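Lecture notes, unit on binding sites. The following record was shown on slide 14. It pairs a sequence with zinc ion.
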Amino acid sequence: MDCLFCSIIKGEIPSTKIYEDDYVYAFADIAPQAPFHAVIVPKEHIKSAAEINSQNSHLIAKVYEAVAEIAKRENLENGFRVVNNCGEDGGQTVGHIHFHLLARRNLAWPPG
Ligand code: 5GP
Ligand code: ZN
């Protein structure tokens, strides 16, 4: 299967690692939308949030454990935003579920 983020997780495509554990990999976004912009992915290939079910939802819990750990390590005490784009209208461009962790600037709301 041809998947950009699976290739990044395997190290076939280089990335700047921010965090890794048995379930999750996080790396610097190539086109950062904030001074701090990590992309957090479960290592298991899941297409999008629309594919989450009782068999794989524990991996999303692992993603959020990683969010808290990264926020602690990176001293994001002023806050941050986690974004998941799902499907075409949601703006998803890579078909491996991922969560943007954005920080170190004041983030507008609503996002538009
Ligand atoms: P989406 O638009 O699907 O929510 O997010 C995909 C993200 O992946 C984008 O923010 C984009 O900049 C990032 N991205 C796409 N290709 C690469 C790549 O090869 N390396 C890295 N580090 N980020 C990428
Ligand atoms: Zn994948």
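Take-home: The chain has a mean pLDDT of 97.
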